[in-house]
Amino acid sequence: CYHGLKELDKKYFCPKCVQDYGFYVPRYSIHVRVIDHTDAASFVLFDREASKFIAQSANELRQSYMAKGGDKNSCPEEINRLRDKKFIFKVQLKMRDVNSYEPYVIHVLKMSNEDSIVSAFISKNTLEPVS
């Protein structure tokens, strides 16, 4: 199940599917705050994109972190290394999702932190600071 499972006794329950599972596979769901000179937004990185930048599956990261004595409620250093890095995001916004009364959903299609791509974007888009 790709939805949030809740741990109950020795089983895992999905409130959305209304089903019990005997085991689970850890997956990334990393909430990041993206800030530029114009505004800020919250994005969620899931497995495919997150594992590219952390270079480990969520399961491998969890096992190594717990083996080092990490607390399951704290954040591994590998995830904290994403802080203060520059990324380029390719996003999609569906106009039907835009509603003035609710936050809208921005889908991250791709992301990159390659210096050549970031530098090319910055050089082509000289952005003036907003006063």
From TrEMBL:
One Pfam family recorded for the sequence: Rep_fac-A_C
Domain Replication factor A C-terminal residues, every copy: 7-105
Highest rank taxon of the organism: Eukaryota
InterPro entries xrefs: NA-bd_OB-fold (IPR012340), Rep_factor-A_C (IPR013955)
Protein known as: Replication factor A C-terminal domain-containing protein
